[in-house]
Structures are given as structure tokens and as C-alpha cells.
Amino acid sequence: QAKARGRNGYSFYMPSMTGEGVERLRLETYLRRSIEKNEIFLTYQPQVEIDTGRLIGVEALVRWNHPELGLVPPVRFIPLAEDTGFINQLGEWVLQEACRQMNRWQAAGLLVPKMAVNLSARQFERGGIVALVADTLADTGLAPQRLQLEVTESVIMNTGDAMVFINDLHAIGVALAIDDFGTGYSSLAYLKQLPVQTLKIDRSFIKDISTDANDEAIAIAIIQLGKSMNLSVIAEGVETEEQAAFLLRHGCRLAQGYLYGKPLSPQEVLERWHV
Ligand code: C2E
Ligand code: MG
Ligand code: MG
Ligand code: MG
User: What positions does the domain EAL occupy (predicted)?
Assistant: First the structure.
């Protein structure tokens, strides 16, 4: 401790600040300015009907391109944004940008049926989420039914008032999906009460669907659950024709994944789907 002290008795070295801590602090500092520096943008991954290839919607996936760090993956900066509270600003920007993009596409002659936007737990805790969604819809004129909000099971289960907010969001008419379904601790009793329309089968179950009997069983169970609860089911992370065929065979008609398209720029979506 004493050795770490500088000549004037002040220490610039904090024991907790390992290389990782410094790195995190740097990332945090950069992240805080990322929006104003125009480093944040959205990509859009197509969601399709498996048998027809018809576009049913897109999911907005946020990207951060920092001049020094390059493209930072969301798995690195979303948790950080959640820890620091920056997620509220980021989430607001994402929601507004995604809704505006629907209008830009429409002006260019492409009607994308649905925009899916991911929400974090912290966005629920603050409570302003309902007003934000309502305001954004009013500002952009997007029909509420064309916006689908994605939340994970853990957000629903671990966030005190999530149920209240979800009901409020449902009341303004937006669609709700449970993301990464099957990976959190889902309470089926909760599911029964939730006004959700869609279950998204997590990519981890799709990956080895044709070789792993357990994954296969889980995927089939989720499809059946969706069917009997009258929910639509969409498979995430579909990469092969084999997986798509399996899903179709078991009654899952909707998919998202590299087989149908990686997350695309607005222009790429337009080029690919504009008739
Ligand atoms: P997610 O919502 O489950 O999004 C799906 C992720 O799977 C995306 O990763 C997507 O690029 C990836 N993916 C899609 N198809 C395939 C495939 O066929 N194979 C493989 N290997 N991967 C595929 P991404 O864009 O890196 O996003 C990761 C996670 O970050 C998202 O998972 C979501 O939880 C979070 N995220 C992304 N954008 C936002 C956002 O705007 N707000 C919030 N709160 N979270 C976001
Ligand atoms: Mg998602
Ligand atoms: Mg997911
Ligand atoms: Mg996922």
C-alpha cells in the first residue's frame, strides 16, 4: 500500500484497479459519449416465414463502432450500459431510431410488417418505459401493433414491477415477445398471466437440433407450448436448411437466423426486400 504511494503521498494506483478494471473504466468512459459521437447505429435482422421466405419483421440489433476499439459486440457493452445506467439513454435512442427507420423504409416503398426491439431490465426499473414507448409511437406515427418489444424471462421474473409495465405496454397495443425462451427460469404460471404474443426459442436449442436429443425435445416442447397457449413461436439462430426443415416438420413456421440473413443495414434490407 505504502509503496504504491507517489512522492506527494497521493496514490494513483488503486489496488482494485487491475488491468481489467482499467479496461472497463475506459470502455465506460467511451460508451457514455458514444451516442453524441454518432458511434451507435442499428442493424436489422430479418424474421421470415420459413416455407414462403416472406418477411414478417426485423429485429433491431444495436452496434457500437468506436474509432479506436472498432466494432464492440453488444455482449460486451450492453451489460456495461446496464451496470452504469447508460442503458436508459441507449434504449431510448434505439427505440426512437428503430421506429423512425420503419417510416424511412415506408417512404422508400417498403412496408416492413413489424419492428422488434430488445428491452433490458434496467429500462423497466426506471418505470419511464411506458411513457417512452407511447411518446415514440406518437412521434413517429407507427401503429403500436407494428412494434414488438422483446424481454427475456429473467427480466420478467427478476424485475419487481415488470408485470405491471408489461400489462401497461400491452394496454397501449404493442406486441410483446419473450426472448431467449427456455434459458431463464421461466415460470409457466407467469407465462399464463402474461399478455405476450410470441415466444422466441433460444438459439442454443436450435444449434444442435438434429444431433442432440435433448435440444430436440426442448425445441419441440416449446413449439407445443406455444401452440397450446395460442402464441406464435419463432426460432432464433437458424443457420441450416436442416434446422429449418426440422422446425417446419414440428410446426414452427417462423425463423430468424443467418440462413435468412445476418443483421443488415437499412439499405441492405431495402435492396433485398423491396419489390
Ligand atoms: P438477442 O436479442 O437474442 O439477439 C439475437 C442475437 O443472435 C444477435 O446477436 C444476432 O446477431 C445473433 N444471431 C442471429 N442469428 C444468428 C445465427 O444464425 N447464428 C448465430 N450464431 N447468431 C445469430 P447480437 O446482435 O450480437 O446481440 C446479442 C444480444 O445483445 C441480443 O441477443 C440482445 O440480448 C442484446 N442486444 C442487442 N441489441 C440490443 C438493444 O438494442 N437493446 C438491448 N437491451 N439489448 C440488445
Ligand atoms: Mg432479441
Ligand atoms: Mg434472443
Ligand atoms: Mg440470445
Answer: 24-275
- 110, 274 in Cβ contact below 8 A? yes
Alpha carbons 141 and 147: distance in angstroms, whole number: 11
Ligand 2 midpoint to CA 275 (Å):
27
Positive or negative CA dihedral for 266, 268, 271, 274?
Answer: negative
Distance 59 CA to ligand 4 centre (A): 12
Bridge pairing between strands 175-181 and 147-152: parallel
Determine the residue of 94, 118, 198 to mutate for testing ligand 1's pocket, defined as the one with the most ligand atoms within 8 A of the Cβ atom: 118
Q: Quickly state the pLDDT bin for 13 (edges 50, 70, 90).
A: low
**What's the pTM value of the predicted model, to 2 decimals?**
0.93
Q: Which of 129, 105, 132, 108 is nearest to 46 (CA)?
A: 105
Task: Report the range of poorest mean pLDDT among 75-79, 158-162, 252-256.
Answer: 158-162
- Give ∠ CA 183-115-126 in degrees, rounded to 5: 65
Question: Residue 66 pairs with which residues in a beta bridge?
Answer: 70
Please report where in the chains the cell 413461436 appears, as a residue: 233
Distances (CA, A) of 1 to 4, 16, 17, 77, 243: 5, 12, 13, 32, 58
DSSP 141: T
Return d(Cα 250, Cα 253) in angstroms, integer.
Answer: 9
Q: Which residues lie at CB < 5 A from ion ligand 4?
A: 180
What ipTM does this complex have? 0.97
